[in-house]
Write a structure and sequence with these properties.
single chain; about 80 residues; mainly beta; OB fold (Dihydrolipoamide Acetyltransferase, E2P); four-stranded antiparallel β-sheet
């Protein structure tokens, strides 16, 4: 089965949910579309949505909620469907 890596284009802090009280955007095992938001990247109090970029089933997140990320870093992996 083919895989797709979700890569962050920005440096910043990765968040899996919109607010601390919110549910995560998605969980491992969820089916996602290319435009499905899987997290947010915060850069200097500005938040940018990170989308899956392909349709598939989310395998795993490779960073934790609140982790710093760098451009080009793999954040999650998908099995393409």
């Amino acid at each position: 089965m083919a895989e797709h890596n979700v890569i962050t284009p920005l440096p910043g802090t990765f968040y899996r949910k919109a607010t601390p009280e919110s549910a995560n955007f998605v969980e491992a095992g969820d089916q996602v579309g290319a435009d499905t938001v899987i997290g947010l990247i915060e850069v200097m109090k500005q938040f940018s949505e990170l989308t899956a970029g392909a349709s598939g089933r989310l395998n795993a997140f490779l960073v934790e909620d609140g982790d710093p990320v760098e451009p080009g870093q793999v954040v999650a992996s998908l099995d393409l469907i």
